[in-house]
Amino acid sequence: MELRVGDRFSDETGEWEVVGRPYTTIGGKNANVRVRLVAQPTVIETRLWGAHDRISVKRTTAEEGKR
């Protein structure tokens, strides 16, 4: 899993932004990452995926981050 801080993804509950570096558990088989809900910045969750699961994200570029 190659998530980075600032990546965004959507699911049925809304659009989420990665706010912490991903880390793995159980011998590298599960990946955990802290995310926040874009519409409500106070809502922060830890999400769990299989380390080899594919998820679709929007990656911010350096220029977008400066705006």
Describe the model.
The longest helix is centred in the C-terminal third of the chain and has 5 residues. The protein contains one helix and five strands; from the N terminus they run βββββα. Strands 1, 2, 3, 4 and 5 form a five-stranded antiparallel β-sheet that branches. By secondary structure, the protein is mainly beta. A hairpin with a 6-residue loop joins β4 and β5.
Mean pLDDT metric? 87
- Measure the end-to-end span: 27 Å
Number of helices: 1
Q: Biggest sheet, in brief?
A: 5 strands, antiparallel
> How much of the polypeptide forms β-strand, as a percent range?
35-45%
Helical coverage, percent range: under 10%
Radius of gyration: 12 Å
Q: Which descriptor suits the 3D outline?
A: globular
Poorly predicted regions: none
Along the chain, the helix and strand elements come as EEEEEH
**How many individual domains?**
1
Classify the secondary structure makeup into a structural class.
Answer: mainly beta
